[in-house]
From TrEMBL, chains A, B:
Pfam families: TetR_C_6 (PF13977), TetR_N (PF00440). InterPro entries: BetI_C (IPR039538), Homeodomain-like_sf (IPR009057), HTH-type_TetR-like_transc_reg (IPR050109), HTH_TetR (IPR001647), Tet_transcr_reg_TetR-rel_C_sf (IPR036271). This is TetR family transcriptional regulator. Keywords: DNA-binding, Repressor, Transcription, Transcription regulation. GO terms for molecular function: DNA-binding transcription factor activity; transcription cis-regulatory region binding. It comes from Cryobacterium zongtaii. PANTHER family: HTH-TYPE TRANSCRIPTIONAL REGULATOR BETI, HTH-TYPE TRANSCRIPTIONAL REGULATOR RUTR.
Length: 253, 253
């Protein structure tokens, strides 16, 4: 699954990415969350280049996320995004070939953020190997709680991701983005499940990819329900059920 | 949950519906699937009234579903919908007060269709009461298979429903539509689960509403994954896992 590594490798199917490797680390290498204020090109073109391309791309992606989250995918025009970023259209075209290329990077960016939030933290006790299925269940429940906390902190981001999937599915040219998004979700889930099994001294009774699909489906489903009714109590119960469901697919090694 | 009954009662929060009860059965009382070709109003206004209001509403809803499914919610303008239905704008405004009112009815219509497809059929053997948990699991697996078959037969409809939820969540005025849609999903799932428990002589170990939320989340999640990659094999495995997960929340009475 090396081709699905989030930050350092090419995005599946995005040949334009491979053609411009110097930009492939743009977003994740930029820690700043402050908007970068660009100047209008008219008469001041020389200043455009003062902002490194990577920073400009990063600022545009974060602006795009705010626009998509606040107003929806359909309203996230190039013009709206550059206005949000305080940049000129010329600066946009210096950084991205098209709005769709920006949307690709936006999906990368948010999936990477989710990965950081949800994946189990490296643990110094990993090699000690706790050994019962309850422990596997608890590790899963903790991971699901981290996901739910991440979702609660920024509901608009989760809504934006669901909209982006629908947007990509709408067009034959962009369908591969949704495919790549879910391949990445499934790969991340498989990674988390492998870690959970290792830490609890468990094995999966089915190929981990199959278990991963269940985990991703559960999180997608609980996200939609929560976005609709914001019922935290029902969601907590659902997280319990989800942990039980996934843990039932493993056993002590 | 009487206020959530699909065809014969008012839709929660839709006071405009209650004000016009003679139209509240329009869609479901019209079995025809053929488009109704209306005439242009100009100079032929007398012909407009020849199509009963209920038929006109039904034709517009089915046209709206085709437009949303083919082109997306954003493209489903009143103009596009009347063009698809072969009607005039005047005819539209005779049938609906606004595009949003039409969207309300569209959600009603598709949820009702799903109910018909997914709910267990009335069974003459129901009172005989099979008595083991395997039977509960099989009933659930069969219901999930019916849902998956329904989804495979018309993927665009499922995509349209997910888009409509996102569309409703996008606007404070329409949010209640998404809430009503999911209340209805949860009520239908609870109904199906009650039936499954009764037929298998089982009881649920948790309030049926909680189990229903798990079932709806699982079907939402598996639908998104399938819409993205159309992986029927992975979906079949997921249906097995989903049936196991839900059945684990019941036991023989």
């Amino acid at each position: 699954m090396d081709s699905l590594r989030p930050f350092h490798g090419p995005w599946p199917g995005m040949s334009m990415w491979r053609a411009r490797p110097r930009r492939s680390c743009a977003i994740m290498c930029t820690g700043s969350t402050a908007p970068l204020f660009d100047v209008n090109d008219a008469g001041q073109g020389d200043q455009v280049t003062r902002i490194p391309a990577a920073d400009r791309r990063s600022a545009l992606v974060r602006a795009a996320l705010r626009v998509v989250a606040d107003r929806g995918v359909a309203q996230a025009t190039t013009r709206a995004i550059v206005a949000e970023a305080g940049m000129s259209l010329a600066s946009f075209h210096y950084a991205f070939q098209s709005r769709d290329e920006l949307m690709v990077e936006l999906i990368r960016y948010v999936v990477a953020e989710e990965a950081t939030a949800v994946l189990p933290e490296p643990s110094s006790t990993e090699s000690q190997g706790q050994d019962d299925i309850q422990s596997l269940r608890q590790i899963l429940r903790d991971g699901l709680q981290r996901y739910a906390d991440h979702m609660s902190r920024d509901p608009l981001r989760e809504k934006a991701m669901l909209e982006l999937t629908q947007y990509a599915l709408r067009s034959p040219e962009l369908r591969h983005l949704a495919v790549a998004q879910y391949e990445r979700y499934h790969a991340l889930a498989a990674e988390a499940l492998d870690t959970a099994a290792r830490r609890s001294g468990s094995v999966w009774l089915h190929p981990v990819g199959e278990v991963a699909r269940l985990l991703v489906s559960l999180t997608d489903g609980l996200t939609i329900a929560w976005l609709v009714d914001r019922n935290d109590t029902a969601t907590a119960t659902l997280l319990d059920f989800a942990a039980d469901s996934v843990a039932a697919l493993g056993r002590p090694a």
